[in-house]
Amino acid sequence: MKARSMLFTLYGDSIERYGGEAAAQCLIALMGALGFSPQAVRAALARMVRQAWLQRRRVGRRSFYALTPRGRLRVEHGTSRIYTLDHRPWDGRWRIFAYAVPERKRSLRDRLRRELAWLGMGPLAGGIWISPYDLHDHIAAFVQAHGLGPYVAEFVGKHLGPAADRELVARCWDLPAIARWHERFVADYLPRLESLQQRLAAGEGLTDQAAFVEKIHLVHEYRKALYVDPWLPAELLPADWRGRDSARPLFCYHPLLHPPATRVF
Question: Which domain, by its residues, includes 9?
C-alpha cells in the first residue's frame, strides 16, 4: 500500500468534504493512524506537489495542502464512479481515442495506457481505445500535461456492427475478471459489515479512530475497482450481471463508520 495512493483516498473521502485543505501535521497524524510513517507521508506529499496533484500553501512555518484543479478532476472522476449505485445513462455513441506514440517515448506511452485503463476505457485494437462515456476533459488534461497532442486523436461515433454492442464490450473488457473482483470484495467486507451491525445491536461499537481507519480502508479497497471496472451502462452488460453487488457493503458499511470517523478530524 503506497502513501500517495492512500492520500488520494483521504482527499476524496474526507478532506474535500471539509474545506479541501489540510495542514501537513494533520495529514501526518491521519496517515499515521493508517500505518504510514511521517517520512513516507512527507515524501508522498512532495511527489504529489511535483506531479501537480497537490498545491502547497505556506503560513509561517506551517504548510497546507490542497488538490490542484487537475487533482480535483481526478478525484471527482473517481468518487463519481464509486459512490454511484446506478450505472450512468448512455447516449448510444462510442468515444474513440487513438494514439501513435513513438517508440522513443515508450515509458510515456505506457503511462498513457495506464491512464486510459484507469478512466475505464477498453482496448479495441493496437492504439485504439473506446468508452461509452464522455471522458474528453480527463483525457485532454492528461494529453496536455504530457505533451502528447501530436500523437493522439479523439472521435465520437456509432457502432455499425457487424457484432452487437454487448459483443463489442465482451471483446474490449474482461467481464468475468470484473465479476470476480466484486465477488472477492463482497466476501471480504460483507462479514465485517454484519459483525459491526451485530455489535451495534448489542450496544457496542468502535472507537472513533478504529472507525476512521476501517472507513478509509473500506473506501481505499473499493477504489481499486476503478482499475478494474469501467461501470458500463446496464444495456451493455449481461442480463444477469452481478458486478454491482459489492455496492451493498460499501453503501451499508460506510454510513455506520462515518459518524464516529468524522470525530477524528
Answer: 3-73
Q: What is the overall mean pLDDT for the chain?
A: 90
Question: 252 lies in a domain?
Answer: yes
Please state the pTM of the whole predicted model.
0.81
Q: Is residue 128 located within the same domain as residue 153? A: yes
88 domain residue, yes or no: no
Do 132 and 191 fall within a single domain? no
Q: 115-159: per-residue pLDDT in tens? A: 999 899 999 999 999 999 999 988 998 999 899 999 999 999 999
All cell numbers assigned to 212: 476512521
Per-residue pLDDT, 166: 93
